[in-house]
Amino acid sequence: MGLRTYVITRILLTIPTLLLLLSMVFVIMRVLPGDPVALHFEKKADPAQMDAMRRILGLDKPLWEQYADYLLGIVDVNYFVAHGYPNLGKSMQTFEEVGGQIFSAFPATLELALYSMAIASVVGILLGVASSKAYNSIPDHLIRGFGTVAYAIPVFFLGIIFQLIFGVYLGWLPTGLRINPRVDPPATITGLYTIDSLLGGNPYKFLESLKALLLPSLTLGIILSGIFVRLTRSNMLETLRLDFVTAARARGLKEGTVTYGYALRNAFLPVLTMMGLQFAMLLGGAILTESTFSWPGLGSYIVQRINFRDYTAIQGAVIMFGLFVTLVSLVVDILYAYFDPRIRL
Amino acid sequence: MRKTKTKLRSILSSLIPGLSSLARRGPSGWMVLVGIAIVSSIVIMTAIAPWISPHSPIASRVGPIRASPSLQFPLGTNHLGQDMFSRILWGGSLMLQVSALSVLICFLVGVPIGLLASYTGGMVDSTTSLVIDAVYAFPGLVIAIAIAAMLGPGVVNMALSIAVVYIPSYFRIVRSQVLSIKELTYVEAARAAGAKWHTILFRYILPNVIPSIVVVVTINFADAVLTAAGLTFIGLGVAKNIPDWGWDLTDGRQYLGSGAWWIITFPGIMIVLLALGFTLIGEGLSELLNPKLQR
Amino acid sequence: MVERVDLAIIALVLIGIIVASGTMYYTATTLSNISAMSDDLITLTDGVTELTGSIDDLATITSTLAETVNASVAEIADLKARLAELEATLAVRETLIVGTTDSVELTLDPAQAYDYFGWNMLQQISGTLVSVKPGSVTGSDFVGDLAASWNASADLKTWDFNLRQGITFPGGVAFTATDVKYSVDRAIALIPRIPEGAPAGLGYDLIFDRTEVLSTYKVRFHLKFPFSPFLGILAARSSAIVDQRYASIAQINYTAANPRASTPVAFVGPYTLVRWDRVAGRDNEIKLDANPNYWDLASGLPELKHIIFRFYRDAATLRLAIEARDVDMAFRHISPTDVLDLENNPNLRVWWGTGAQIQYLCFQTERAPFDDKRVRMAVAAALNRTAVTETVFLGLAKNLYSIVPPGMLGHTEAFKDAGLDENYALTQSLLTQAGYSTSNPLEFDLWYESSGHYPSSADQALLYEESIEAAWPGAIQVTLKSAEWASYKSNRDSEIMDAFIYGWYPDYVDPDDYSFLYWASWLHTNYSNSTQVDLYDQARATSNETLRTQLYAQIDDIAVDQCSVVPLWVSGAWAVTKPTVYGIYLDITQDMRYWLISK
Q1: Is residue A8 within 8 angstroms of chain B, CB to CB?
Q2: Residue B225 sits in a domain of what CATH number?
Q3: Do C310 and A181 count as a contact with CB atoms less than 8 A apart?
Q4: Which residue in B130, B179, B272 is closest to A16 by CB distance?
Q5: Does residue B17 sit within a domain?
Q6: pLDDT > 70 in chain B, percent
Q7: Is B181 domain-assigned?
Q8: pLDDT beyond 80 at C570
Q9: Which of B226, B255, B283 to mutate to test the interface with A (most CBs of A within 10 A)?
Q10: Which domain does B243 fall in, by range?
């Protein structure tokens, strides 16, 4: 089929995918052992109180009705316009709007993801290019070694080592939280502390939030860079052998222009798609990193909520994550279909 | 029966020359060899642990609490007075079991589904891809946590929860390969010649798909090791009376501030080594089997 | 080739769109924030104009001073700088920064809050009729808070309170008996709507019959049954007095950026809530300022003007924070290892106190093997509490031999006196009687909670397993099983656990809030004992301490004989501060009274 048909089909397919995702998370939550009603009562609970709680949480309604409410809530446009986020129900643990909670937890994860991605990409691509240029030499092997080892390290292990070295022994950087406890966080504009402090014209807060951001994003960034190093390297090796590169060199263009201007631009596509995929993954909440660094983002939100069997909250967070991943996969698939017509079938 | 025996024998007899031929294949071959060496030494170490371990890995207070490495306790003791050296020897067992089992499950579930769905094409393919995409869109660790919470702790349950996360990857790789190969001329020729679908699938398509799968398997192993450690870190690990590197990593974290670095460092290094070993095999094989470095 | 470049651009654009769609939420908020900012800017400019005016005045005075004193400009500048420094130091001296891993669970509404930290915060900002004296050992030395005096009828069903006069809420409204009645009535009225709240859990509707306003400053409580621990209920934070202007009959929830609207309590406590920031259901920052309306200002309290709470995710990070002196005080939770380490740190000070959190072992009495009380007693006798308190808690927890913790009235050493600790001989003889041996071993599952709800559960369980199996090697086989909290609770209710470890912390400090654990129906141990229940009811109906002690001791005697629930240990309490911090009381109430802390 033609590319256009494929794209349209693919886009249309995301809707049932998302619907399936919504339904799956709904079902999984209710199949899990553990009752959100019971979890409200730390101590004694008599049946009357538990029934009252069940009614409050809407769990006394028949399952299909809960499901219908759930789906209708998500597509409620009025709510979305009024609040700026979709109606994902009220948290079964704290009774606050789930959409609002996710909305407030999201900036922390976004900031962490952005900085980690930046570090991973810069380190990964630069090292990958350098390694491919110096093919089969010692630096190449060292960089490949780094790329392989980096991804094999458990993220919380590396995080703890960094905390120990830079936080405790050297005392240079804070070991947790988004900003030094003695400093008030910058006024919320985007929710990203670094951007907000710059927008607020407060260089001290910018520095403090940057310092707090450094260790977690370094941890994640180094581990992710491993993939990028290897991917960039292998794609660059492939590209550097192609005719047009030789031709460019023959034409007398400088090596730097050839490497970055020609070869990298063409080798970049798979790396870019991998970046997109990894970024979507990060947005799902770097759960382990957030636990290690006391980072109040979406990841820790999800973990806490699972412990409380907070159906609505987890549904909301999973939908959010699913949306990102689905969209990015959509883009990736379309790009590959553009590349390889055989895939479009 | 005879066929299996002959197959087995041919695999074994080609193993030794196979390994040495790897060495002649340049740096990629070296990578695979080093990876195999690392993994097999860990497997052997775990296997002979019952005989060479100086203490029981779960007996508490065999030594002073949080004693630093010494002659008596070469890797120190942890917060319960357990000998770290014994725990290192025994502790890989759980990770090896969990990762092997999860890879097996993934393979046995993901590959057939991928083959059948993409070969059949049409509605079956679209529906299966849909379901798999939905699973893929789930945050990986959340599925693992949900399943581990649902089923309770245990080797099989941990393996299952990790497997569910990786099946989509197997499916996708297999599918993309099958789609490329399906339309090749010689496959069409076989079809025209009247070959049955299962013959085409297993004799023509599968052998071409295997190289990519092998790479995914090794990456799956490495990821399974890390995810198993992650699950233990969150509290969904196995019972405390099973020695496990993941436990030491989780526990050891609390004692870093007080200077007991040995509780977390040695298990951490072992986990990195194990994951590294698998990754090296995967990397090397990927280069050897896919010289064009297709994704 | 050229297409590839185009493609890269297309890809960039598409991915950019995705990222942009994700961040379009921010544009909406950004725009509204920016418009809010521009409003603030206008107010700021007005403020700046005022400031400039004041600065002008200051300048004039300074120049006059300079002329008068005839000092050089440099000296004046130096003086100004030193003044600014002093002011900054004073501000720091008057602020306490507290690091904690706690977080307000739901709200600061006394009709709903039922968690430690929520109650702790309520205690700083609100008032109750009575409270427990700081440093109390038994938890029953009550002093008047908003009440000046009280007395109870002989049958302990009618309680009269004389309120302090002259207390006003912020804004000048006088505190009277109607406010007390309103608060109690509100708590009870909200029970059907807030079943998870403390009034429901403590049974306010079962305790209070009606509340009567006798006069402006006199209130009378009629109770449904004779209840001697009633003062404990009144000292609990669910009895905090609310301000009718802010406390409708509906529950009050957290309202972002509006601390006053987030709690209905009357700000008559030592502090007011000036900032409460939550992100996705967890506290981010809480700031308390000294309350100019505090009824006890005359005593010079609160010591410090500002308290700021910073929230950490776990004990390890909190330890690093106090070690790096990022906070002035770290309270709940620093692990035993860390606190013992920090004791040796000359730059920090550790405070020790009494704990009230307990752990106990429950047996499923409805089926084998624990339907036989000899088997229960055998396992109870095999427990090595010392191994756990010494190894896991490094001596910071204490062996517990009665369900009522030490210090409180009714505490005994019953289980120890009966020889139910590290008594392998007893275990063996009981098991032999019950028919077990090395050829017919006792097999059962020991469950523990794995998601950190109780401290070090996994390590504890491992050591219990070891000690039980060591009592008669080969004749006892314990299988360790774990579940994370939600599943654990569900397992408890479905009664599938043979033996399981559970915990408790008190709502009010009285054996009345502990003793019932032996037969609590919600533990689903299927154990009941009418004698114990009778003794318990008698004990709560009298205020005679000697009699009560006897009655609780009798309950313990039966408990030792039946072993339905076996007490394991009681926690300690500690806080870590900089050496310049004083006034920390870690008494049996577990309350942290921040208004007594000074620097």
Answers
A1: no
A2: 1.10.3720.10
A3: yes
A4: B130
A5: no
A6: 92
A7: yes
A8: yes
A9: B226
A10: 27-63+72-294
Alpha-carbon distance C497 to nearest alpha carbon in chain A (angstroms): 15
Phi and psi at A43, nearest 5°, equal -115, -135
Distance from CA of B80 to the nearest CA of C (A): 6
**Angle in degrees, CA C544, C548, C554, rounded to 5:** 155
Residue with more model confidence, C16 or A212? A212
In total, chain A counts a number of residues equal to: 345
**Number of domains into which chain B is organized:** 1
Q: How many CB pairs under 8 A join B and C?
A: 76
CB A247 within 8 A of CB A182: no
DSSP symbol at C283:
E
Q: Rounded mean pLDDT of chain C?
A: 87
A294–C contact, CB cutoff 8 A? yes
Rounded Cα distance between C574 and C552, Å, is: 29
Residue B5 lies in a domain: no
Task: Confirm if A29 and A319 have CB atoms less than 8 A apart.
Answer: no
The residue in chain B having the minimum alpha-carbon distance to the alpha carbon of residue C391 is B80
Question: Is A294 in the B-facing interface, judged by CB distances under 8 Å?
Answer: no
Supply the mean pLDDT for chain A: 81
Q: Are strands C95-100 and C306-311 parallel, antiparallel or unpaired?
A: parallel
Chains with ≥3 Cβ pairs under 8 A against A? B, C
pTM score, whole prediction:
0.82
8 Å CB contact of C323 and B236: no
Please report residues of C whose CB lies closer than 8 A to that of A339.
7
Element (H, E) at C160: strand C158-163
Mean pLDDT for the stretch of residues B256-284: 88
Taking CA atoms, C116 is separated from C50, C101, C103, C417, in Å, by: 45, 12, 9, 33
Of C316, C480, C483, the CB nearest to B152: C483
Q: Which DSSP string corresponds to C373-427?
A: HHHHHHHHHH--HHHIIIIISTTSSEE--SSSPTTSTT---HHHHTT-SS-HHHH
* Range C535-543 contact pairs with CB under 8 angstroms and sequence separation of 24 or more: C536/C512, C539/C228, C539/C410, C539/C511, C539/C512, C539/C515, C540/C226, C540/C227, C540/C228, C540/C229, C540/C512, C541/C156, C541/C225, C541/C226, C541/C227, C541/C228, C542/C156, C542/C226, C542/C228, C543/C152, C543/C156, C543/C228
Contacts of C78 (CB under 8 A, 6+ apart): none
Residue B241 lies in a domain: yes
Residue A344 pLDDT: 52
CB contact under 8 A, A301 and C324: no
Structure tokens at C273: 């809530």
Cβ pair B176:A16 closer than 8 A: no
Contacts by C209-213, CB closer than 8 A, 24 or more apart: C211/C180, C211/C181, C211/C184, C211/C185, C212/C181, C213/C177, C213/C178, C213/C180, C213/C181
State the amino acid at position B285 in one-letter form: L
Return the SS3 of A248: helix
Look up residue C489 and give its amino acid.
Answer: K
Which pair of tokens denotes residue B172?
Answer: 């996708």
Separation in Å, CA of C338 to nearest CA in chain B: 6
Rounded to whole angstroms, the Cα distance separating A299 from A111 reads 13
CA distance C52 to chain A (A): 21
Which of A28, A168, A329 lies closest to B146 in CB terms?
Answer: A28
pLDDT of residue C17: 60
CA distances, C131 to each of B237, C143, C161, C231, C297 (Å): 44, 6, 13, 8, 17
ipTM of the complex: 0.81
Q: Which of residues 190-249 of A touch C (CB under 8 A)?
A: 190-191, 244
**Distance, CA of B4 to CA of C435 (rounded, Å):** 52
Low-confidence ranges of chain A (pLDDT < 70): 1, 43-44, 181-182, 262, 265-267, 269, 284-285, 336-337, 339-345
Lowest mean pLDDT of B124-128, B219-223, C33-37, name the range.
C33-37
Distance CA C382, CA C423 (A): 6
